[in-house]
């Protein structure tokens, strides 16, 4: 319900009269905390893995972020199956399913460009989830040199990485386009979880505890992998030193 806040204005005889000001627009809770945590950690992992992909020096960081990316994908799939209605994968599919109706209207000469942008944004997100699985699997197969197919897996991995990047850029571009059209930042709800406007909250429980668990697991995995890498580097260094000592003795 829209509410107004009265303000007091003075009259010539000194009496105050109440005058309503601009209505205060409430904000509805639309996205719960676990979904927001997943979104930003997923984006951070992909961006970090992309930036470290071509560097041998940062190879361990690339692998760690890739594994974290895969873990987040697994969480999203499980949460999309057993989580609340607003997080269900079926809801995302239902939004994209309207593409067929849009195409029929477009062929009939009724082209709805704003709806096309909305459908495109949903389709990009759905396709990104689809592409993420082979992206992670091909990267891991190349890393462990599965069946001696590391060269082939590297090419497959690069193909899916480029596809994922194209989908991310399309998603961001459509968000910018719709934000300009609606004259409000459509990325804000993914930060606050709330969308301005009257009406009830679509998300009944924010589940902040689950978001904190996802974040703690993510940071714990990154920290554990970092410690493992440091330990491996120390062991390798000690081995090199022993080799040098043996050479000197000879």
UniProtKB/TrEMBL annotation:
Organism in which the protein naturally occurs: Roseateles paludis
Q: Which UniProt keywords apply?
A: Cell membrane, Membrane, Transmembrane, Transmembrane helix
Q: What taxonomic lineage is listed for the species of origin?
A: Bacteria, Pseudomonadati, Pseudomonadota, Betaproteobacteria, Burkholderiales
Q: Does the keyword Chloroplast apply?
A: no
Could you identify this protein by its name? Cytochrome b/b6 domain-containing protein
Q: What is its main location?
A: membrane
Region (Disordered) residue spans: 1-23
* Compositionally biased residues, Polar residues: 1-10
User: Record's superkingdom?
Assistant: Bacteria
Cross-referenced PANTHER family: BLL0597 PROTEIN (PTHR30485:SF2), NI/FE-HYDROGENASE 1 B-TYPE CYTOCHROME SUBUNIT (PTHR30485)
